[in-house]
């Protein structure tokens, strides 16, 4: 159960960081409801798609599942760390240049939800390795992402711009740690 919760928190960090950035911009109060619902739904849905793909190809990778999980989660976590590092170095982070926030349109909301959930599809391949029912893991992924996104939005309004990259970095570290744990268990 703890692995599923840790996976859900790790996957939620991208959405949380984006929500924090949107909260910082303070575009519209309705984003406090819209972003968590979209991010949680997309995160859970994309993980379900990855899980279904894994079920179809499961017998082909059964001997290598721990290596696949390690590789996928380490790659996703590493990308999150790299993105967090790059975000921290972009102009506008140090106050030199102010960046305009994205407008508040349906296309922007859907694009953000899709962009923050792509890693969940890859992580969904590893759901058979998590020692809980897949429906529970998917529910946890959606609910935790929604809760973290709401908290991130509010936190962005209160704590400032620098928090976003740190949350994404934390999510990357969590995913890499889960991948290492799965590899060790599989060996």
Notes on the structure:
The chain is an all-alpha fold and 187 residues long. It has one domain (2-186). It is built from 6 helices and no strands. The chain has helices at residues 2-25, 31-61, 65-89, 106-124, 134-159, 163-186. Helix 1 runs antiparallel to helix 6 and helix 2 (31-61) runs parallel beside helix 4. The radius of gyration is 16 Å and the shape is globular. Mean pLDDT is 75; it is low at 93-101.
List the helices and strands and how they pair.
Layout lengths: L1 H24 L5 H31 L3 H25 L16 H19 L9 H26 L3 H24 L1
Helix pairs in contact: 1-2, 1-4, 1-5, 1-6, 2-4, 2-5, 3-6
Helix content: over 70%
Number of domains: 1
Structural class: mainly alpha
Instruction: Determine the number of helices (DSSP H or I, runs of at least 4 residues).
Output: 6
| pLDDT averaged over residues | 75
Tell me the total number of β-strands. Answer: 0
Largest sheet: none
Distance between the termini: 21 Å
Rg of Cα set: 16 Å
Strand content: under 5%
Low-confidence stretches: 93-101
Shape: globular
| Helix/strand order, N-terminal first | HHHHHH
């Amino acid at each position: 159960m703890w692995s599923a919760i840790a996976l859900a928190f790790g996957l939620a960090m991208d959405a949380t960081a984006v929500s924090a950035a949107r909260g910082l911009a303070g575009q519209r109060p309705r984003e406090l409801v819209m972003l968590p619902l979209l991010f949680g739904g997309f995160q859970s849905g994309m993980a379900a798609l990855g899980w279904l793909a894994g079920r179809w190809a499961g017998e082909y990778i059964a001997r290598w599942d721990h290596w696949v999980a390690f590789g996928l989660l380490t790659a996703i976590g590493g990308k999150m760390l790299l993105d967090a590092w790059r975000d921290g170095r972009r102009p506008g982070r140090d106050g030199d240049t102010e960046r305009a926030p994205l407008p508040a349109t349906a296309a922007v909301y859907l694009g953000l939800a899709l962009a923050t959930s792509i890693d969940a599809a890859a992580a969904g391949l590893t759901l058979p390795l998590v020692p809980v029912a897949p429906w529970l893991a998917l529910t946890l992924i959606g609910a935790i992402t929604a809760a973290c996104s709401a908290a991130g939005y509010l936190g962005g309004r209160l704590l400032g711009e620098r928090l976003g990259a740190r949350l994404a970095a934390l999510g990357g570290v969590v995913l890499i740690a889960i991948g290492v744990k799965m590899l060790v268990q599989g060996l």
